[in-house]
Structures are given as structure tokens and as C-alpha cells.
């Protein structure tokens, strides 16, 4: 029997409604894992904020996960520690408790970005690693033609990279992460060369921006994409992406050095 949740606790998206089955589509992409691991440096203790179902959590370090959604905490696989029920803005953790911190696809969910990053700074002595999307680059993805409201919603939710850097303070580095064609992590841009995946309702539910559309708007976008795939029009316009090994989309890694770095 499928478990039902009514926590509604994960920022602006209701993961009690859309989060079930999330980990089936949002699996860690090895190329991104490697980039995160490199950015974490030699940290032995790592805080993972907005940890979700545990994607990108390093297995070779001591990790403390924080996740406010019960639906997401319950999907953490065997082998990962239980996540602390808390939000980024109010971490029940001691000052300087961690060598490093990380958060992936999470900062756009926080109610107060500045407070959340301040809290992470408080409990972390070393690097802070943030996997996020640059809202200024989202409209380069072809989905903007079929579901502009999805792109518009994402652009409004994701904080500007300059805003993140200013809130973090200190030395901050931003690195673009090209998206591989067979990307294991099923966010919208991961399907740049596999458009049929966005005809799958479960795949769309794993990309929270779709939850802000009305049912009629989603149906219209799906119908238009299906029609263009069936007619061959999509391939005439974008078919070259099916063979492109990487797509330069909106994904970036923001790394802030700690006070002891």
C-alpha cells in the first residue's frame, strides 16, 4: 500500500503530493557527484541541507542530513543515516560542528535564503558547496517553447548566483556543470536529448516546477510536445541534441571557502 503524507513542509512545493517516487527519477549523476566531492575537499564531516532522498550524499564521509519533508526523509535508502527533521533557516546544530556543508537543488525551496546560508555558515568551518541553477540561463532550454510557464516559474524560484554569493560572503567560486546526455538525475534539462521522458507524468512530478501549472496547462504542453514528436517537427528543430554528449544548460556549482580555508 502506498504511504500517504500530509507534511507539506518542503518550501514552496508540496512534496507530500509530488515527492512519492522521487528517487526513482532523481538519482545522482556521477559527473556531478565527482564535482561535489572535489569541491568538498578533505572534509571528513559534512552537513547536507535539504537532503531529500539522499542523492549526492557522499558515502566516504560522515554526513549529517537535514530534510524538512517526511515524504522525502522516508525515501532515504538503506545505508544512509536518518535525516534530521529541520529547515535550513533553523538548524538545531552547534556552531562550527562540520568541516563542510552541501546542498543540492534545494536553495530555491528555502523561505529565507539569507537566513539559511547564515545558518550554514554558523555550523560549518570549511567549504560550502551548492548545486543549483542559474535563472538567467534557463530559457536556453527548448522546453521554453512548449512549457514557458515551467521555465518562468523556475526562473522566479531560483535565486540569482550573485545573490547567493553575496549572502555567503568571502571567496566564492562558480563553476558551470555541463549536463550529460544520459544524465541519471532527472531534472528538466536532463532530458535535453530525450524529450520523450517529459511525456511521462512521473518524470514531470519529479521536477517541482510542473506542480505550479494548472492541469490544463500541463496537458496543453504535453499535447504540443507529443504532436511535434509524432510529426518529426521536434527532431527537425532540436534533433541534433540527441547526439550531443553534453548540454550547456543552467546548472552551476557554487563553492564558498570557509574561514579556515
Task: Map the helices and strands.
Blueprint: H1 15-18, H2 22-25, H3 30-40, E1 45-49, E2 62-66, H4 70-73, E3 100-104, H5 113-123, E4 128-133, H6 143-146, H7 148-157, H8 161-168, E5 172-176, E6 179-180, H9 201-205, H10 215-231, H11 233-238, E7 246-247, E8 251-256
Parallel strand pairs: 1-2, 1-3, 3-4
Antiparallel strand pairs: 4-8, 5-8, 6-7
Task: Name some characteristics of this structure.
261 residues, alpha/beta, Rossmann fold, six-stranded mixed sheet, two-stranded antiparallel ribbon, 32% helix, elongated, disordered N terminus, Class I SAM-dependent methyltransferase, S-adenosylmethionine-dependent methyltransferase activity, transferase, SAM-dependent_MTases_sf
Would you kindly provide a written description of the structure presented here, covering whatever features stand out?
This protein is α/β, with parallel strands linked by helices. It has one domain (15-256): Rossmann fold, CATH 3.40.50.150. The chain has helices at residues 15-18, 22-25, 30-40, 70-73, 113-123, 143-146, 148-157, 161-168, 201-205, 215-231, 233-238; strands at residues 45-49, 62-66, 100-104, 128-133, 172-176, 179-180, 246-247, 251-256. Strands 2-1-3-4-8-5 form a 6-stranded mixed sheet, with helices on both faces. Strands 6-7 form a two-stranded antiparallel sheet. Strand 3 (100-104), helix 5 (113-123) and strand 4 (128-133) form a beta-alpha-beta unit.
Query: In angstroms, what is the radius of gyration?
Result: 18 Å
Any low-confidence stretches, pLDDT <50, length ≥5? 1-10
How are the strands ordered across the major sheet?
2-1-3-4-8-5
The succession of helices and strands, N to C, reads: HHHEEHEHEHHHEEHHHEE
Judged by helices, strands and strand pairing, the structural class is: alpha/beta
In oligomeric terms, what are we looking at?
single chain
Level-1 CATH class name: Alpha Beta
> What does the overall shape look like?
elongated
Query: What is the CATH superfamily?
Result: Vaccinia Virus protein VP39
Number of beta-strand segments: 8
Largest sheet: 6 strands, mixed
Work out the helicity level: 25-40%
Q: Determine the mean pLDDT.
A: 91
CATH architecture: 3-Layer(aba) Sandwich
Give the number of domains. 1
How far do the termini sit from each other?
Answer: 49 Å
CATH-assigned fold name: Rossmann fold
Instruction: Name the beta content range.
Output: 5-15%
Continuous helix count = 11
